[in-house]
Specification:
The complex is a heterodimer of chains A (236) and B (542). Chain A has 236 residues and is an alpha+beta fold. Chain A has two domains: 111 residues, Ubiquitin-like (UB roll), CATH 3.10.20.30; 119 residues, Fumarate Reductase Iron-sulfur Protein, Chain B, domain 2. Chain A is built from nine helices and seven strands. In chain A, the strands form two sheets. Chain A has a five-stranded mixed sheet with strand order 2-1-5-3-4. The radius of gyration of chain A is 20 Å and the shape is elongated. In chain A, 49% of the residues are buried. Among the domains of chain B are: 106 residues, Succinate dehydrogenase/fumarate reductase flavoprotein, catalytic domain (Flavocytochrome C3, Chain A, domain 1, Alpha-Beta Complex), CATH 3.90.700; 125 residues, Fumarate reductase/succinate dehydrogenase flavoprotein-like, C-terminal domain (Methane Monooxygenase Hydroxylase, Chain G, domain 1, Up-down Bundle). Chain B has 15 helices and 26 strands. Chain B has a five-stranded parallel sheet with strand order 6-2-1-10-20. The longest helix of chain B is centred in the C-terminal third of the chain and has 23 residues. At the A-B interface, helix 1, helix 3, helix 4 and helix 6 of A face helix 4, helix 10 and helix 13 of B.
Chain lengths: 236, 542
């Protein structure tokens, strides 16, 4: 099959974005991340209309949906490029459209700066002061699920309430807060965590639950949120 | 004030950083990407510790003996002793830090059987042990980041180690964002930069682990050890760009390997090795599979004999990965598997305390040569990274001088133009790397021989000559500076494989079958005057 891959490019944070189209010919049984790596090794690298092009900047690490590095917009939806196959994402017009995530500042091409996601966790003091070893009522499976979060940013991309750098931390902050609120012993640190959760998630979430659909590893974000809210509201 | 610089934020790097922070020693943690993105997150099956929670009378001594035996007696005995005896505390510590390990009905840490081990000894978190471990470490490190003991600098890549008078003084780094060079002075440097995947291109691990730091150190004259010991994991499956791991836990839970013979399933491991069967050490299974693949016969990993509940609860990640990447449901159909490069037992030479041959320089994790000898046991890599990171931090603290060196590199070193002086454009690093990958994949497979290794060495040298004094206009500065070192590292691996005229662990020479006692030594490689010098040195403590 012949596929056109149209990429929204940007040379640096200040530059204007522009579109470039590249061609793929094959059986389509290749992921977008593999395609981008293959594209960058082409010699010479030419656009669909035969003009020389610069290599496409994108982030990737595991190529197995385990690290969240390669999150980008595929046909307008946030996806992990390593788990989307060319054949499965090509539109009726034979084109796949790639763009950087829109909620984060672009560094170059498909690479965005998602550092605010991690900064929020530090601001919210998402860590354990000491684990509560007496509480046997924990849902270990849900804790495990929370630990599977890739911090890829797909949930934030579709969230109607999230803007990078603002007070609302979105599902990425919620899911991590849940685990420590549940695991931490009931002390001053846990009280601070609950306050931070209230300020940076609970007060700002409008319950669109768009994040549930967008999560590339299908984490039960609604269930986890319900549990996190219960931790916040209990003993008030 | 003292400051330790750590290169790499995987399990070894974070483990070192946390341990330094516990002792109030500040560190600077350098990483190209946040810790959530690095290779340690990909580890699946588990982390070994003789916790003896499964009523099987397990002891650290047994873990030690089985680690040493699986490594075909090439590891440092004392290092293995310390690793295995330190393991229970490491795993209990992770549990106390909130790691979502699977637990037994009695509330103890659950252990699963893994290859090459006669007891259930592998603690695990479903099939995502690395991910859960990294999440735990990142959470733990965050409290120290908040109080400044750990300063994390993400988005920087290693350019060069700076040494003066036989001491590591600091590290030159390149900003991935704007290409600027910065100097990080250090009273100690811990390298936790991972394995050498970039030389082969199809390893199961992260594409970030190019082996550039290891290659740079070789070029700087530091010894590397046991480079020929490259682990082929027996159950990987082919993706387009690289291989994907199917965790050993599948076999631990009852998965079976077979080939089709005359319309019947032939369980080759169970027939040939009745005691451990599908849980023989990885090197043994990889070789057995290879015998079939050479004849054009496809080995399969069959999960259909595992109770459905177990597959769904303990191996969920495997089911999902097969569904996503192979369009295959392992509960219905077997998984076609083949051996794939998974781990580098060799690397930067370190002693039992993780000191390299340069003062103030330490290495841990897959970047270092420690613990695994000629073949690594599944479940010992996360353990080695955790324990090695803490040991390297202990050594760095012992060697602290009281202040970060006030040495400063020449101003010109901070200018990108200095590094490419005299080089011409024309190099395409991704294409050249692909060419190097293909050569090494062919000669450094499961079976090796003198003729192919020697030919590969000539081919690598030819590639190296072709690309000499050139640079790639579109590549980053660090890629341009370090890529030529990849050829030297490739040569060092080939020289090591040529020199070891025996078959031991992961190194199988068809022209020299069988282990030979005179080769029970550490293969050392040093780069000197554009030559690789390979020697066999007594194993530390022997």
């Amino acid at each position: 099959m012949k596929i056109k891959i149209c990429i929204q490019r940007q040379d640096n944070a200040q530059a204007k974005p522009y579109l470039q189209t590249f061609l793929y010919e094959g059986d389509g049984a290749m992921t977008l991340a593999d395609f981008l790596a293959e594209l960058n090794a082409r010699e010479p690298l030419l656009t669909a209309d035969g003009k020389p092009a610069a290599r496409v900047a994108f982030q990737s690490s595991c190529h197995e949906k385990k690290c969240g590095a390669c999150a980008m917009l595929v046909n307008g939806r946030p996806r992990l490029a390593c788990s989307v196959f060319l054949s499965g994402s090509v539109g009726k017009d034979g084109t796949i459209f790639l763009a950087p995530l829109g909620k984060f500042p672009v560094i170059r091409d498909l690479v965005t700066d998602r550092s605010k996601t991690f900064a929020m966790l530090e601001k919210m003091k998402v860590w354990l002061s000491k684990k509560d070893s007496t509480d046997k009522s924990w849902d270990r499976n849900l804790q495990y699920q929370a630990g599977q979060c890739l911090a890829c940013g797909c949930c934030l991309e579709v969230c109607p309430n999230y803007l990078a750098g603002k007070a609302f931390g979105g599902a990425a902050a919620m899911i991590q807060s849940y685990k420590v609120m549940e695991q931490n012993r009931d002390d001053g640190h846990r009280a601070e965590l609950k306050e931070a959760y209230e300020e940076h998630f609970f007060n700002g979430c409008s319950q669109s639950l768009a994040c549930v659909q967008a999560c590339p590893v299908k984490l039960p974000l609604d269930e986890i949120q319900a549990r996190a809210n219960a931790h916040l509201l209990k003993k008030r | 004030m003292d400051k330790v610089v750590i290169i790499g934020s995987g399990a070894a790097g974070l483990s070192a950083a946390i341990h330094l922070a516990e002792e109030n020693v500040p560190c600077l943690l350098i990483s190209e990407m946040p810790s959530a993105r690095v290779q340690s997150n990909m580890a699946e099956g588990g982390i070994n510790a003789a916790l003896n929670t499964m009523g099987q009378d397990d002891r650290p001594e047994l873990h030690e003996a089985e680690t040493y035996k699986a490594g075909r007696f090439l590891a440092c005995k004392e290092a293995v002793h310390r690793l295995t005896h330190g393991a229970p505390d490491i795993v209990r510590m992770l549990y106390d830090w909130g790691m979502a390990l699977n637990i037994t009905e009695e509330g103890n840490i659950a252990l699963r059987p893994f290859g090459g081990q006669t007891r259930k000894r592998t603690a695990f978190a479903s099939a995502s042990t690395g991910k859960q471990l990294m999440y735990t470490l990142a959470t733990k490190a965050r409290s120290y980041e908040a109080d400044g003991r750990i300063e994390t600098r993400t988005g920087y890549r290693f350019l060069q180690l700076v040494e003066n008078n036989g001491r590591a003084m600091g590290v030159l780094l390149v900003s991935a964002r704007n290409g600027q060079i910065v100097y990080a002075p250090a009273s100690g440097v811990i390298l936790a930069s991972g394995g050498m995947n970039g030389l082969f291109g199809n390893a199961t691990g992260s594409v970030l682990n190019k082996g550039n730091v290891t290659a740079s150190l070789l070029s700087a004259g530091l010894p590397l050890a046991n480079l020929e010991m490259i682990q082929y994991h027996p159950t990987t499956t082919r993706l387009h760009g690289k291989n994907m791991l199917i965790t050993e836990a599948v076999r631990g839970e009852g998965g079976r390997l077979y080939v089709e013979q005359n319309g019947e399933r032939f369980y080759f491991m169970e027939v040939k090795y009745p005691e451990l069967g599908n849980l023989m050490p990885r090197d043994v299974i990889a070789r057995e599979e290879w015998q079939w693949i050479k004849q054009g016969v496809q080995p399969y990993l069959d999960m259909r004999d595992i109770p459905r509940e177990v597959s769904i609860h303990k191996l969920a990640g495997v089911l999902e990965a097969c569904h996503d990447f192979l369009s295959l449901d392992p509960l219905q159909k077997p998984i076609p598997v083949s051996p794939g490069i998974h781990y580098f037992m060799g690397g930067i030479y370190v002693d039992v305390n993780h000191r390299t041959c340069l003062r103030n320089l330490f290495a841990a994790g897959e970047a270092a040569c420690q613990y695994h000898g000629a073949n690594r046991l599944g479940g010992n890599s996360l353990l080695g990274a955790m324990f090695g990171g803490r040991t390297a931090a202990d050594s760095a603290m012992e060697d602290l001088s009281g202040k970060t060196a006030d040495f400063r590199p020449l101003e010109s070193w901070l200018q990108p133009s200095t590094w490419l002086k005299g080089r011409k454009t024309g190099l395409n690093i991704p294409a050249m790397r692909n060419a190097l990958n293909l050569l090494l994949q062919k000669a450094l497979g499961i079976e090796r021989n003198e003729k192919d290794l020697a030919q590969c060495l000539r081919d690598v040298q030819e590639l190296e000559t072709c690309s000499a004094m050139q640079y790639d206009e579109q590549a980053t500065l660090d890629e341009n500076v370090l890529f030529p070192d990849s050829f030297r590292l490739a040569r060092a691996i080939l020289h090591s494989a040529l020199a070891r005229r025996e078959s031991r662990g992961a190194h199988t020479r068809t022209d020299y079958p069988g282990e030979r006692e005179e080769y029970r030594k550490t293969t050392m490689c040093i780069f000197h005057q554009n030559e690789i010098r390979t020697t066999f040195e007594p194993i530390e403590g022997d």
